[in-house]
Write a structure and sequence with these properties.
Strand content: 5-15%
Structural class: alpha/beta
Order of helices and strands: EEHEHHEHHEHEEHEEHEHHEHEHHHHH
Bound molecules: D-xylose, calcium ion
Number of strands: 12
Helix content: 40-55%
Length: 439
């Protein structure tokens, strides 16, 4: 197979003092951190859509990148195979062990569902061969039930049962492909699962139907041997104004209400967190405390812009806070760090893609090192432990154990005026973290 990216070498670890932008400064896959190789902590994944399909178009102009990879687009199967070749060459050169895909990323849709499915069978045979030859794995699969005009008013939440049925059929196929490719996750991102105005919307039926579709998907996937995790990927807006999966707490409440919380976890995306006016680490923590932490879409938004910019992550502080949460949640099982990220429109060469991945991977590798240093230092965890120590004994322990009600607490309060409240010491902790991270 001829090389598609001669200007991108196999990327090596050069150490923190190295200056080669096509080498890793912090990501050393086999180096052990907190008793585990970095590659197991991080489980990096390439997103098929941004890396192999997205050409940089925006509402003011067409694409700026050439993503034909030497094949003509109208020869759809040759082009789909060229994308596979490009993807595997990049993943191998960058030591990326996983990929994620939507059905429609893999090959152009046909005129009918049957024709699309036939094309998907052929291209996934080809992908399977490349996976077997390289050891690269599928992190998760998903179904694009939001781009085509038929889904303009949603898929599971469409007012038209024919559209619901079509979405169900597409999801069935996407699950089968995920199983065929050995994927350990299946994502529901509800792009159009929301609404614009109550004037034309039956919210109750839409929510009930969305839950019905997810239940069908879980039951079917289990029946064909899918052992991985399902994830909702919360996002507050863009494209729908009122998204039903606004943020992690909203999505967990939806799952709990429909008895699906044990079946479906969260794929938390950094950019979606900031769009919901949350920090990324808040969203990861909320997933963890609901027993729903699953996977991460590692990217970064721009706080000055109100939309989903899907930038490669470079903010080490933010990534460190995220890695702290991931480690505390027990690390990844079936999930990983999927770079749902693209280079800026004016960074339009293959080398730019490599720079994007290297920067993103190094950002999370450095974040892992810093998070490990914070955990090994221990002072932050100790502080939090001490702050809540009152709940370990006396009246605090009674509250936690459910032994005290309002009457008992009134009797206690009448005898025990609270002491002056203890300082939260935020600024001290922030300084301490800076010294651990940058000292
Ligand atoms: C869009 C989402 C999407 C999901 C997969 O904003 O991030 O790409 O990750 O459908
Ligand atoms: Ca995403
Ligand atoms: Ca996104």
């Amino acid at each position: 197979m001829s090389e598609l990216f001669p200007n991108i070498p196999a990327v090596k670890y050069q150490g923190a003092s190295g200056q080669d932008p096509l080498a890793f400064s912090y990501y050393n896959p086999d180096e052990e951190i907190l008793g585990k190789p970095m590659k197991e902590h991080l489980k990096f994944s390439l997103a098929w859509w941004h890396t192999l399909c997205g050409e940089g178009s925006d509402m003011f102009g067409p694409g700026t990148y050439d993503k034909e990879f030497g094949a003509e687009k109208r020869d759809f199967m040759a082009h789909a195979k060229a994308k596979v070749d490009a993807g595997f060459e990049l993943m191998q050169k960058l030591s990326i062990g996983y990929f994620c895909f939507h059905d429609t990323d893999l090959v152009a849709e046909g005129q009918t569902l049957a024709e699309s499915n036939k094309r998907l069978d052929e291209i996934t045979d080809y992908i399977r061969q490349r996976m077997d030859a390289t050891g690269i794995k599928c992190l998760w699969g998903t179904c694009n039930a939001f781009s085509h005009r038929r889904f303009m008013a949603g898929a599971g939440t469409s007012p038209d049962p024919d559209i619901f049925a079509y979405a169900a059929a597409k999801i069935k196929k996407a699950i089968e492909l995920t199983v065929k490719l050995g994927g350990t996750g299946y994502v529901f991102w509800g792009g159009r699962e929301g609404y614009e105005t109550l004037l034309n919307t039956n919210v109750q039926l839409e929510l009930d139907n969305l839950a019905r579709l997810m239940r069908m998907a879980v039951e079917y996937a289990r029946s064909i041997g899918f052992k991985g995790d399902f994830y909702i990927e919360p996002k507050p807006k863009e494209p729908s104004k009122h998204q039903y999966d606004f943020d992690v707490a909203t999505a967990c409440n939806f799952l709990r209400a429909y008895g699906l919380l044990g079946d479906i976890k969260m794929n938390v995306e950094a950019n979606h967190a900031t769009l919901a006016s949350h920090t990324f680490s808040h969203e990861v923590r909320m997933a963890a405390v609901n027993g729903a932490f699953g996977s991460i879409d590692a990217n970064q938004g721009d706080l000055l812009l109100g939309w989903d910019t899907d930038q490669f992550p470079c903010d080490v502080y933010d990534a460190t806070m995220c890695m702290l949460e991931i480690i505390r949640a027990g690390g990844f099982t079936n999930g990983g760090l999927n770079f749902d990220a693209k280079t800026r429109r004016m960074s339009n060469t293959p080398e730019d893609m490599a720079y994007g991945f290297i920067t993103g991977m190094d950002t999370y590798a450095l974040a892992l090192r810093k998070a490990a240093a914070i955990i090994e230092d221990g002072r932050l965890d100790n502080f939090v432990e001490q702050r809540y120590a009152g709940y370990k004994a006396g009246i605090g322990a009674d509250i936690v154990a459910g032994k005290a009600g309002l009457k008992e607490l009134e009797a206690y309060a009448l005898q025990n005026e609270p002491k002056s409240p203890a300082s939260g010491r935020q600024e001290m902790l922030e300084g301490m973290l800076n010294r651990i991270m940058y000292g």
